[in-house]
Amino acid sequence: MRLALFISLTLFAAMATLGAAMASESTENVSGAIFPTPPIVKRQADFWVKVFKRYNSSAVVIHDPEFVDLIIDVVDFNTFKEKYNQGQGFSRRERKEILNRYIERYQLAINRLQKIGKKALDYGPMEQRVLQVYSRRKEALARLFTEEIYLRTQQGMADEFPRAAERAENYLPYMERIFRSRGLPSDLTRIAFVESMFNKEALSKVGASGVWQFMPETARLFMTVNSYVDERLSPLKASYGAAVLLGENQNLLKSWPLAITAYNHGPNGMQRAVKAVGSRDFDEILRNYHSPSFGFASRNFYSEFIAARQVYREEYQGKSAVSRNPLRIDRIRLEEPISIHQLLTSTPLKQQVLAEYNRCLLPKAFSTHRYKPLPKGFEIIVPEDLAASVRTAVKQLSYGRSNPSKARL
């Protein structure tokens, strides 16, 4: 079947089953004092719960970017391939073209409604659907007829979230201890779902890296990032940095919605928002603060955290026994500067093991910087069963550096 014909068929056939696809699934209103969910946050979180829990990556949600919970349609390519393409999948180009046709048609429906009002309903189901969705709330209907609207798409993550939860089990016991040791709520670790889905290989287009998606310049305030060591790549070391940063944000902004949003938007940006609106109320900021830099990601960051926290708690937390040390590791702090060469020649560690357990050590650490000392206080992560012998060897190396005359005896 030719793509153009397929698009024409699916564009309107999908409307027949749209009602079932729009069945509501409400977020639990977790209204505690620590992580409050006022009305706008609650509606945003409802949307993100659906993204994390209901819609798989084969589905693309078409929605309003301002009122994100206003879902216009869901384009599910798995359903389409079975119904309209003889079970054959679509290329990236075909998916993009189909989706663009949907967006163009809905944008046309919005434009018609704005120009001629209810007379636009005569044009077909797309106009009817748009008016139906925006009529659910007075402020949304007002937006439809008074503002320019450019619809947004969001790919589902319901099939990725279980994999992320499985990956999280390897790191959350350590992360939660790190956060609690700094007097922070351990649930803040769920921000890593929003940032990377606990993918330790995550690398953004703008250079953010690791589970916590630190940018290099921010990371250097809290950890080592240079040509041969990048602690952003260590989920545990980056967690120390994330805990410090979030604690500083909270001390400055006095509100967890603001402090968590500042993880994405920056503390200075959130201070500007508070000053512009004249309030620390997060709903007031979402309603009244407008800045080119305070875009969709920043406006939704806290709500995504609320949703990820809820989905993990309801679906995965406590469902299986979690070891306090699932990676079976130990950490050894260097009391004196010691090089990679010394670690490999004077301890039981082999290069493959050292690199595997310490992803923050870049390839240059084992080549051109092999003889360059790692700084005092640097922590190496080692297999639990090698920890005792490595610790003893490191102590001997440290003793030799601080007592060179005795080391020669």
Describe the structure.
- This protein has 409 residues and is mainly α.
- The chain folds into 3 domains: 3-24 and 55-155, no CATH class; 160-315, Lysozyme, CATH 1.10.530; 329-407, no CATH class.
- Helices cover 53% and strands 7% of the residues.
- It contains 19 helices and 7 strands.
- The protein has a 3-stranded antiparallel beta sheet with strand order 2-1-3. The chain has a two-stranded antiparallel ribbon with strand order 4-7. Strands 5-6 form a two-stranded antiparallel sheet.
- A hairpin with a 7-residue loop joins strand 1 (59-63) and strand 2.
- It is elongated and about 85 Å long.
- It starts with a helix and ends with a helix.
Spatial shape: elongated
The order of strands across the largest sheet is 2-1-3
- Measured between the Cα atoms of the first and last residue, the distance is 83 Å
In angstroms, what is the radius of gyration?
26 Å
- The count of β-strands is 7
Q: Helix coverage percent of residues?
A: 40-55%
Which ranges are low-confidence, i.e. pLDDT below 50, for 5 or more consecutive residues?
12-31, 405-409
The secondary-structure class comes to mainly alpha
What's the main sheet like? 3 strands, antiparallel
Which whole number gives the mean pLDDT?
A: 91
Reading the helices and strands in chain order gives: HHHEEHHHHEHHHHHHHHEEHHEEHH
> CATH fold name of the largest domain, please?
Lysozyme
Proportion in β-strands: 5-15%
Q: What would CATH call the architecture of the largest domain?
A: Orthogonal Bundle
* Count of individual helical segments: 19
CATH class (first level) name of the largest domain: Mainly Alpha
Our count of domains comes out at 3
